[in-house]
Amino acid sequence: MTGSLWLSLVLSLAIFAQFQVNAASNLVCFYDSEGFQRQGLAQFSMTDMELALQFCTHLIYGYAGVNADNFEMQSINKRLDLEQRHLAQVSSLKERYPHIKFLLSVGGDADLNDGNQYIKLLESGQQGHKRFIESARDIVRRYNFDGLDLALQLPRNKPRKVHGDVGSAWKSFKKFFTGDFIVDTESETHKGQLTSLIKDLKAALNQNDLLLSLTVLPNVNSSWYYDAPSIAPSLDIINLGTFDFLTPQRNPEEADFSAPMYETVGQNRLGHYNVNFQLEHWLLQRVPANKLHIGIATYGKSWKLSKDSGDSGMPVVTATQGPAPAGPQSKKEGSLNWAEICQLMPNPSNINARGPGAPVKRVIDPTKRYGSYAFRAADENGDHGLWISYEDPDSAASKAKYAKDRNLGGVALFDLTQDDFRGQCTNDRFPMLRAIKYRLL
């Protein structure tokens, strides 16, 4: 074979390999098992799970926790996981869906047993790390999962007011660099400890051909805790929590886009509160793009508007009063699932409603750069004001296209139980999941 023919063959194989990477984009589906215990329309059944699995490449079961005394991984809901055998019930689906990888996640903001046990785990040394690793591997193997997901609950960035004049922005800048915003003075030490833990954990899991994924939770400063070039070879998947940059709990007095695609300009907003910045942080550290997954939330963040918030709805919205009341299904202040948001849009059943049932005004972002929002101005008594930053199937599909265009591993959906899995709005079950999958094909 001539040299030119060899060159042509090599180039053809390279192009084919690149096509394969693009064509095999992952859709990592997070499943918060709490959804199985909800009541009414919010209750997520195994039948719902099986419909969703037609679209997923990975299913991540959430969540296990860490025992703060002995650093072993443990169930944080023994009644559901063990007594009702839900862990085994979910992992048994592997038999019918052999193409899907099932992983068990630890942390994920669900582990409330001790607020600092993950830092304590890092500081526990070789003995503590060994106990965690052995217990994690044992649980994963016992329940026939394909691997482990680390969604470690590490200290978060302190929330900062993003709106204000140049003077206030300069004060925030000075505070950041003089230490007022430092939440962990030992972060460099913890970074090294976490690197060791990840490498040792992967070595142990490799003995049983098990996967290891990392989920970076929202507002955890990646540069403080993750030595990206050192840990990337030990990780099969990296899921970035690229949402909840602003929330009514962290930012009660002003509302803004909670998961913009790119930096939002004006009003002295912070430049790192966007998907693109967070992704570039990892790519610039030579982490392979095909290991990275951007996170998309199936819920929106909701603020309560006051009379002083005005009636334009245009963010940044000031004079907000923290989280809006919980929705009838998700029952969590400041958060609404997609079905709840969709049903607040004008429709025949609410067009003449007043008070908390009145429709919201929907404002779509035609650029796909920042996100959509919806709002209802407070009434003359200052009541029933509502502002929501959210994803819808269109914006989720746009982010999936971004992931595909950047040759990323794919998308991580947080989570299945917050999508409109019953088709309450359009009779189309799992509309966000479907929209993402079709754009990744």
Automatic annotation (TrEMBL):
Region: Disordered, residue numbers: 310-332
In which compartments does the protein localize?
Secreted
Q: Which family does it belong to?
A: Belongs to the glycosyl hydrolase 18 family. IDGF subfamily.
Which SUPFAM superfamilies would you find in this protein's record? (Trans)glycosidases, Chitinase insertion domain
Q: Which organism is it from?
A: Drosophila rhopaloa (Fruit fly)
GH18 domain: residues covered:
25-441
Stored PROSITE patterns: GH18_2
Arranged from A to Z, the UniProt key words for this protein are: Developmental protein, Disulfide bond, Glycoprotein, Secreted, Signal
- Protein name in the entry: GH18 domain-containing protein
InterPro entries assigned? Chitinase_II/V-like_cat, Chitinase_insertion_sf, GH, Glyco_hydro18_cat, Glycosyl_Hydrlase_18, IDGF
The region annotated as signal peptide is 1-23
